[in-house]
Amino acid sequence: MGKFLSLSVDNIYLQLLRTFVLSIFLKGCVINDMKANENSPHTKTSQTDINTPHKGNPNHLINENSPYLQQHAYNPVDWYPWGEEAFQKAAREDKPIFLSIGYSTCHWCHVMEYESFEDEEVAKILNENFVSIKVDREERPDIDNIYMTVCQAMTGSGGWPLNLFLTPERKPFYAGTYFPKTERYGNPGFIAILNQISNLWKTNKESVLTSSEQVVKVLQTVSETSTTETLTQETLKHAYEQLRNNYDNIYGGFGTSPKFPTSHNYTFLLRWWKRSNDPTALEIVEKTLDRMGRGGIYDQLGGGFHRYSTDEYWLVPHFEKMLYDQALLATAYTEAYQATGKPFFANTAKGIFAYVLRDMTSPEGGFYSAEDADSEGVEGKCYVWTPDEIIKILGEKDGKIFCDFYDVSKEGNFEEKNILHVDKEINAFAKLEGIKLEELQEMLSKARAKLFTVREKRIHPHKDDKILTSWNGLMIAALAKSAQALNEPKYAQAAVRAADFILNTLRLKDGSLLKRYRLGEAAIPGHLDDYAYFVWGLIDLYEATFEMKYLKIALELNKLMIDDFKDEKGGGFFFSGKRNEQLIAQTKEIYDGATPSGNSVALMNILRLSRMTGNLDLTNISGQLIKTFAETVNNYPSGYTQFLCALDFALGPTKEIVIAGEHGSDDAKQILKEIRRRFLPGKVVILHQEKDKSIGEIFGFVKEQKAIDGKATAYICENYACKAPTNDINQIKKLLDER
Fold first, then answer.
1. pLDDT digits over 71-120, tens only?
2. What is the rounded CA–CA span in Å between residue 73 and residue 362?
3. Cα 492 vs. chain centroid, distance in angstroms?
C-alpha cells in the first residue's frame, strides 16, 4: 500500500506531469496504478531468504548488507546497487535504468521477484536492454521519497514494489508498482512494458528525455511552501470533524477496507478530547483500539500487531509485522490507558512490548526492523490454527472452550483455517460456560502459553534484522513513555540499552548520526527522520530516567538537525541534509502516513525542548515551522495528525513541571506517580537534584527551585504563569487536574 505524500504544488503542474509524460511515451500501454498491497495479499509465493542456499552465480548485490538486496543477489537479473558504477554503465552503453525499490518483508515484492526477477525470460530482456538497480527503501528513504512522489503524480497511487524507468542521469520517465509478468485483469504485463520502453528508447529517445526533464521540473517545485496562512484551534476542530465523518461506528477505524492502524489519528483524537471535552473523540479512540486489540490484526498468542487489516472487521491481517507499528501503537494504547484507566489498553501495550523484547531485540540492545508475512511461501501460515490442532494440545474440554472464545471453527475464517480473535465479552462468556471469571482467565492464559510454545516450533517468517536509527527512536520513545505510565522499570532499561547502542554504534565523532547497523557495519548518513525520531526517544528517555546525558544529547542532535536540514529559504526541514547524497531534487515531507513525517516530529521536539530550556530561538523556529506548513495542513488537516499533536502542544495550555528533590526518594516517587498516571499531553517534567551541579548548564532557571522543608517539591507553571510551589500531594493533584 502506498503512502500518500502531500505535494505543495499547483494542480496545473501535476496535470502537466501526468498528461505530458503519458502522452509522449508508451502509446497503447496503460499505466499500472495498482496499489501494491490492496490486492488479496494471500498469494502463495516463492520467498527467498538470505540464509537459504542459492543456485547460480551472484549478481552485483552479493556484497551488500541489506537483507532485501541479499534476497535478490542470486536473481538472474544483473542487479546493481544504487551508485556510480550503475549510472556510468548506463551512460556508457546508452541504456535506460530500471529502478526497483522495495523492502525485505514486502509481500508483493516477493510476488514480483518470483514471477519476474527469478524468471530467465524477463532477466534476458532486462540484462540486454537496461541497467537494473535495486534499492532497499528502508535504507534509502530519500531515494524512495523522490521516486514515490513521481509514481503518485503519474499514476495517482503508489506502493511497493516501486518500479521506475530512468535516464542514465537518474531522471524518471515512467513509473508503476507491481507488474505481473504478463497482462492480467487489465494490468499491463511487465514483459510488454519492457519491450515497449526499450523500443521507444531506441527509436524516439528525444521524447523520453523531454518528458524526463518535465518530471524533474515538477519535482523541483514539490517542496515549495507558502507562509501566508496560520493554524488555530479551528484547524484542530476541522481535523476532528473529518475523522469523525469517516469513522466506522460499527467496527471502529476509518473508512472500509483495508484498514490501517494509523496511531497518530488516535493520539490526536485523545488530545482533542482533552482540549474540547468532546466525548465522541474519546469514544472513537476507545472503540477502535478495543476492536483492534481483540481482532486478528493483533497476535493473540505472541503479542504485537500485524501491518493492517484487509477487511473492515480487523479480522484478517496482512501478517507482516513492522517495528514502527509496534512503537506507535504501544504509545497510542498507553495514552488511552492514561486517559481512561482501562486495564485492557495497558495489557495490549504490554503485549506489544513482550513481542518486541522477545523477538525483535538484538543481543546488543537495538531493535530489528520487521518480520515477513510469509513462511514456507504462504502468507500467515505460522499464525493460523484448526480446531483439531488446538484440542490435541489443550485437551477436549479446555480446547473446546478456547475454540469457542477465540472463534475457531471447522469451517475456518481464513482459507479453511483460523485466525484467533475475540468477538465475545469475557464476563458474559464465563457465565454462559458456567465458569468463574478468574478461572476462565487463568485457563485461557495457560492455553495461550501452551499454544505459543507449539507455534514457536513452526517455521517462522523471515526477520529483517537490520537496526534503523529512526525506528529505534520510535521504540525508545514508546518504551520510555510506557515505563512511566505503566510503572514498568524494565521498559526504561530496554530503552536505555537501545539508546546507548545507537549512541555507541551509529553516532560519529562529529556528532552526526548514521542510519543503519547490520552484521557489525554501521552505514549511510542519517536523514531527517533519523534525527527527529531519535531525539523524540531521548526526550522521553530523559523524562523516564532523569539522566541528564540523554537530554544534553537530544539538544545537540536537535541543533545539528536544524543546521543540516533546515530550508533557510522556504522554511521547514528537507528530508535530506548537507551530509546526504544530493539527488535530482529535494523533498520536504509533512504528510503523516504509516509513520509520522520528520517535520511533524521535529516540531514537537522543538516545542518540548523550548519549554524545558526556555530557549527562545527554539520557540521562534517552532513558530516558523507552523507557518511554513499552514496552507498545506489547512487544505486537509486530518492528513497531518502528528503535526496537529504538536500544534495542540503549541496552542497550549502547557504545564512546565519542576520537581525539586532526589531521584528515587519516596516523596519524589509519589509526585511522579501522580504525574505519570495522568494523560497530560502538554506537559514537560524536569527533576532538579541539588547535588547535580550540571543541571544549571541547561536549566538555568531551576537554580532557585529547591526542596521545601527537606521534602520533594513541585513547581508547576502553566501558560507562562507559575503556581506557588508545594509538597502537599493533594494540592499537587489539584494543580495537575486543572484544565
1. 999 999 999 999 999 999 999 999 999 999 999 988 889 889 999 999 99
2. 25
3. 21
Residue 417 burial by Cβ neighbours in a 10 Å radius (0-12, 13-18, 19+): middle
Q: Return d(Cα 386, Cα 403) in angstroms, integer.
A: 9
Largest CA distance in the chain: 88
Q: Which strands, in side-by-side order, build the sheet including 514-518?
A: 467-468, 514-518, 521-525
**d(C-alpha 688, C-alpha 663), whole Å:** 9
Cα–Cα distance for residue pair 488/480, rounded to 1 Å: 9
Q: How far apart are CA 522 and CA 513, in angstroms?
A: 10
CB 129 within 8 A of CB 194: yes
Treating both helix axes as pointing N-terminal to C-terminal, what angle do 205-222 and 141-155 enclose, rounded to 10 degrees?
110
Q: Which three cell numbers stand for residue 219?
A: 519535482
Q: What angle do CA 388, 393, 394 make, to 5 degrees?
A: 100
Question: In whole angstroms, how far apart are CA 255 and each of 250, 307, 510?
Answer: 11, 17, 47
Distance, CA of 316 to CA of 296 (rounded, Å): 6
pLDDT value of residue 453: 98
**Closest to 42 measured CA to CA, from 111, 95, 99, 93:** 111
Q: Greater confidence, 219 or 567?
A: 567
Element (H, E) at 80: strand 80-81
CA atoms within 13 A on the CB side of 263: 23
Whole-number Å distance between alpha carbons of 178 and 116: 10
The alpha-helical segments, DSSP class H, found in 76-189 are 84-93, 107-112, 120-129, 141-155
Smallest Cα–Cα separation from 223: which of 16, 10, 7? 7
Q: Quick one: which H or E segment has residue 81?
A: strand 80-81
User: Closest Cα to residue 380, out of 306, 278, 323, 281?
Assistant: 306
Cell of 718: 502553566
pLDDT band at 676 (very low <50, low <70, confident <90, very high): very high
Helices 190-203, 205-222: crossing angle, 10 deg rounding: 110
Contact 179, 39 (CB under 8 A): no
Give the model's pLDDT for residue 54: 59
List, in sequence order, every residue forming a beta bridge with 97; answer none if it has no partner: 131, 166
Q: Locate 186 and state its grid cell.
A: 487489465
Residues 293-345: pLDDT tens digits? 999 999 999 999 999 999 999 999 999 999 999 999 999 999 999 999 999 99
> Which residue, 410, 382, 400, is CA-closest to 447?
400
Contact present, 477 and 540 (Cβ < 8 Å): yes
pTM (two decimals): 0.91
Distance between CA atoms of residues 12 and 640, nearest Å = 24
Is a pLDDT exceeding 90 seen at residue 140? yes
Round to whole Å and give the CA distance between 234 and 509: 45
Answer whether residue 734 shows pLDDT above 70: yes
Strand partners, 521: 518
Helix (H) or strand (E) holding 484: helix 469-485
Distance CA 483, CA 554 (A): 19
Distance CA 722, CA 435 (A): 55
Q: Find, among 463, 455, 462, the residue nearest to 417 by Cα.
A: 455
